[in-house]
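pasting for the record
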Amino acid sequence: MTGSTALLWCRRDLRLADNAALMWALAQHRTVIPVYIHFAGADHHDVPGAASRWWLHHSLTALDEELRQLGSRLQIIEGPALERLPALARRVQARTVTWNRLYEPALAERDAAVEAALVSQGITVSHHPGALLAEPTALHTATGDPYRVYTPYWKSHRRAIAQPAPLEAPTALPPPPDLAEAIPVDRLGLLPSIPWHGGLADHWSPGERGAHEALAAFDGRTIGHYEDDRDRPDRAGTSRLSPHLHFGEITPGQVALAVQSAAGDDAEPFLRQLVWRDFAHHLLHHFPHTVTEPFNPRFAAFPWRRDPAADLTRWQQGRTGIPLVDAGMRELWHTGWMHNRVRMVVASLLTKNLLIHWRAGEAWFRDTLVDADVANNVMGWQWTAGSGADAAPYFRIFNPVRQGQRFDPEGNYVRRWVPEIAALPKQHIHAPWEAPAGVLDEAGIALGRDYPEPMVDLKATRERALEAYGKVKEGRAKK
């Protein structure tokens, strides 16, 4: 294929190392043109939220800089891929278009349409794995059905899936031709017009280099304590690799190899979490309706509250009057991320104590998380709401006071994000409404003035939720 041209369609694989599509293109073609196509008019589950758009801007910038160092560059084009990619391939006389696969239902449908359009023009399509450890169709039960429960999926994954060695990054790239329709990343308008994103920049370094720096920090300091610390929001006990994985700045195969090399058998608790990510994509592939509908059809009749706007706003703003919940929601707003233990707690309060539909929480997370991922987001919300595959038992309702006392025992996480009650002693910081008047006076705190009264009675709303869930379980709920 001497002299031939390939288009490398970059999507959520914004890296050079362990990039199967890139290395295949370089091996097969003389000219490789890296292209990113941005379309803001796609399905709402395909369009990144505000925090993810911020990340995408910086990740595209970082990839372009790395490509330029090797003699190439990223060329950004606006418009629907189904129109722009075939037209571009014709114009540059590309023999092949190659990409790394994505798996969300809307994206898989789009990619199939793009492939059909290219093939109809006589253009070869070559797509490759790389976003997951195992393809969504790679594992099934003994009867050939998809897995619905995580533990047997994990065991099957560990037995059946062997990881290839990650591919090295290229050391040089051929210079691509200029594309007249290419635009600078700033033209995409990904950065917010109101400068609320300073906290994101303080906490994150988007791009492949930032991903490997985060991995090195995790391997060097945290992995040995992961099993003990991963549930502690007051400690830096997690990898914080999720946004880097989402945007493909690093692959799960690279992460798994590094963690196993650093920790040996002690790596298993972390690897279970990495495989949980695969499980989310496995479920979404086989049950695509779960993006908007309950996995368990009984929950279609669940009596969600019909007009919860005011309570939803208080939850979004971290003004519930329940410290651990407010700390999590404020951490999310300021950093674009929330500790996973706290994600479960805030989701439980919304869906069970407030009886607000899980879709409202999923939409807020999609807009505010830098690691917003359809598969993980939907599975997490349905798990907590009790309507998903392998879901939390319907009667499991997280008590945010007890969760705070157990996983933030000194109150340091709450003090960081809810400074108005920082002066409270640890025995009262997770339930300030139970503190004696003298303790509140000494801390200079007046509930309702300095910090809200709790917006719900946790015990009473738990009983209300159990009654509603019980009716669903027995098939007695009405829409």
